[in-house]
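pasting for ref
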Amino acid sequence: MADVPVSAADLRRFGLFADQPDAELDALAADARRRRLVDREILTLAGQPATAVDLVAVGRLGLSVEHEGRSVLVMTLGPGELLGWSVLREDPTALATARSVGPTEVIEIPAGRILDAVTGCTPTARTLVQRLFGAAAADLQATREQLLRLGREGVITAG
């Protein structure tokens, strides 16, 4: 089956792109691609380089992390949801393993294209945004580690 191109209308279905001008969405859509996954296919692997933002168009993704030698499901994503905000960090890596739950289709937008869209294409602004989101991601990572230890320590703080 031939790949169906991604359109501005496809992107507009996601809250991230609602009410955005066609010209901007057309440019993003030109670099985006559809990716179809079979049941239990891995989309991203925790610790590996994060190279794209994935928008769940159809199906579900289960996000899991390894903890004490076993896989722990931490979240599921469905249609309309986004995976991959970690691309906004410097040296981005996937924070969780994403695996399809049944047949799933995502729209994949390259990280560089997303960064250009949110930073106005200046190298200084791009680095600043990566660092700001890097700080946020570090806080979320610390919170996740605390939640995994829940029950074995006292009060949970969030960074």
